[in-house]
Model the fold of this input.
Amino acid sequence: MSAREGESEGAEPECPGGEAVKASAKGPARRADARRNRDKILAAARAAFSEGGETSMAAVSRRAGVGMATLYRNFPSRRELLEAVYADEVTALCEAAQLAASEGETPAVALRMWLWRFFAFITAKREVATELLTQLGGDEAVFGDGRAAGLAAGRPLLAAAQEAGEVRKDVTLEQVFDMVVAIATINGDAEYVEPILQTALDGLLRPSSA
Done:
């Protein structure tokens, strides 16, 4: 196995004679710069898709303020960019569950906060998901992984709310997910759709918590 093959991600190369120490001055700075470029590209792609603007690779490059070489070094294909945008949003959704748990006044409030975040995730990523499905040739495995991660993050929120007697116990998180997804796909603007979600979430509460 070569030295490069033996490296762990983000670790200094284990070169003999202290070579890693000699390279350390520039290494972290380069990695930080590469990370910033990647983050800028993902932010530009997210914004382009959410706004419904031009989403070509050239447009994303211009919006991010990086060259095409930098864009393709990070994401060699449009498919890889789409997968990264989707995965990044799934990560944010999971982190939002932890934030809701710490900020919610009650378990039911925490669950409700997070389900609104899930609703925003679904509505904002509709175009990304549609194109990604096309790029993947109909293979929905990536979405299954995202759903599994979301369920794992949200399950403690529902369990806490049910154990506190604030949310009805005859529903699973899978059912709640499917309900929110169905509402998010209703044809209409936010003024039309959001009251429907509000009503559905009210229906999750036990009478004493409504």
